[in-house]
Amino acid sequence: MAFFSKLKKLWSTEESVEAAVQEYEASRRADSDASAAQEPPAASVQPSVAPEEISTAEPTSPETASPQTAPVSEADAGWRADLTTVLRQAEPRLSVWLDILLEDVNEAGPDLWDRLLFLFNSLQAPEKEAKDFVARFESWLDDMGYEAVEEFRSELQYRLALALDLEDEEDERSRLFLKLSEGLSKTKEKISQQIDSLLDRHGELNDVFWEELEEILIMADVGFDAATKLLEGLKSRARRDGVRDSEGFRKILREELEEVFKAPKRIASYNPPEVVLVVGVNGVGKTTTIAKLAHRAQMQGRKVLVAAGDTFRAAAIEQLEIWSKRVGAGFYAKQHGADPAAVAYEAVDKAMQEGFDLVFLDTAGRLHTKANLMEELTKIKRVCGKKHEGAPHKCVLVVDATTGQNAISQTKLFHEAVGVDEIILTKLDGTAKGGVVVSLALLFHLPITYVGLGEKMEDLRPFSGEDFAKALLS
Question: Which site among 132, 162, 187, 210 is 20 to 30 Å from 296 CA-CA?
């Protein structure tokens, strides 16, 4: 669902709320009469702004009327009309809408479910997706033991942003920027604050200035080779733009960092199911990253299968199975010690037979200095391609930001072995070695697609080079 097209549909109609509610009630009575003779068809999206009455995924009692046949009570019609009016007059932002929906709702329960379903319908989302969203969120609340709205509001907004395709909304980007700024606090101490001091000491961009800047970058784990490349770009930009003093340096530094993260375009199309091979050494957070990726995809309406290809590490299969159940994804595994390539082959076969949209293939935490383990990865790629042409369609490398320059050697060896397509950087929050982000982008020209900024599901966020540069230098 495109954000602006939904807004146009929601806010552009000139039909009055009262007329919409009357039309809606009349259609409900007609449906109720027809249902006496036969089961009503699945509800379709209504063009009217008045939302349909949709019950929760699991009715509280057998006597509860079906959402397809139950007429709207006068009280329900009243709050729907009032809420529709307020929403249409509100600023079209998810956070604002959520504030309105949650007014006078202090805990999870029927009132919350009704209002969430109301929002989905008002944005013309399919009824099935709305019910599925509510059922999943209710199950998650039960697992977490949350009841009060303040305990889960942030997670709710994150899930709504994914489910309603509102992640690019200004408010969501602002929340990510703040989270990114907080996560980079220690890195900023090593880079931004030292650059501030450097600029205060130098009035012009002379040789001494560039030498001291290089030292700052190396100490912040940008690395020697990457720092050299970055300085070459900065010097070239300074000459081109006529920047000779420290006053204009901040601007060209931000622009150069933004340019660093512009990865080349690649063909993203594939014949479904999409197969994603996830690699990385032990301890980088690969298992939880797969769970977070599966969670995102599930919220976006995709049917996800997770395959446990790490068959040797103790409890690796069980851990991934728990995460898969928690996020509602399908799961495939064989016995402990099984051939990882066989797991991958059979998982892809299962996905093709059962209509999965996306497969995440977990792999062992490779000791990247051992050639035989890298050869095992190439075997996994080979057998996947035999089962499903073009698979795996992506190879995602997970690296730990706290390892600094070790992340560079890991990326080099994995890229040589299996051809890495993108990088996910975990544990960026709280590390002073965030300069490795710049190093990875400069040396390998691979897109950094996500960064981990905490342990919650919502803490794996899309990476933006522009936001990173602003957060680092703010």
Answer: 187
Look over the chain and give the mean of its residue pLDDT values, rounded to a whole number: 80
Instruction: Tell me the average pLDDT across 68-92.
Output: 71
In 35-102, alpha helices (H): 74-89, 94-101
Residue 396 corresponds to which amino acid?
V
* CA distance between the termini of the chain: 34
Contact between 382 and 409 under an 8 Å Cβ cutoff? The reply is no
Q: What is the pLDDT of residue 356?
A: 96
Using CA atoms, how far apart are residues 117 and 353, in angstroms rounded to an integer?
A: 32
> Do residues 163 and 300 lie in contact, with contact meaning Cβ atoms separated by under 8 Å?
yes
| pLDDT value at 198 more than 90 | no
Q: Taking the mean position of all CA atoms in its chain, how far away is CA 114?
A: 26
Instruction: Reply yes or no: is the peptide bond before residue 392 cis, omega within 30 of 0.
Output: yes
Compute the distance between CA of residue 421 and CA of residue 391 in angstroms, rounded to an integer: 13
Say how far apart CA 352 and CA 330 lie, in whole Å.
13
Enumerate the β-bridge partners of residue 164. none
Number of H-type helices and E-type strands within the chain = 20, 8
Question: Long-range contacts of range 161-164, CB-CB < 8 Å, 24 or more positions apart?
Answer: 161/94, 162/296, 162/299, 162/300, 163/125, 163/129, 163/133, 163/299, 163/300, 163/301, 164/1, 164/3, 164/6, 164/94, 164/120, 164/123, 164/125
What pLDDT is recorded for position 324?
93
Q: How far is CA 14 from CA 17, 82, 89, 92, in A?
A: 9, 16, 13, 17
The confidence score (pLDDT) of residue 72 equals: 55
Read off the pLDDT of each residue in 63-83 and give the average, rounded to a whole number.
Answer: 57
Q: What is the pLDDT of residues 310-362, one digit of tens each?
A: 988 888 999 999 999 988 899 999 999 899 999 999 999 999 999 999 999 99
Task: For residue 332, give every residue at least 6 positions away whose Cβ sits within 8 Å of its Cβ, in sequence order, or none.
Answer: 305, 306, 307, 308, 343, 346, 347, 350
Tokens of 220: 């912040």
The alpha carbon of residue 122 and the mean position of all alpha carbons in its chain are separated, in whole angstroms, by 24
Q: Whose structure tokens read 């209710």?
A: 138
Q: What percent of the chain has pLDDT over 70?
A: 80
Q: How buried is residue 3: exposed, middle or buried, by Cβ count under 10 Å (0-12/13-18/19+)? A: middle
Q: Which helix (H) or strand (E) holds 450?
A: strand 448-452
Residue 278 phi, psi dihedral angles, 5° rounding: -110, 120
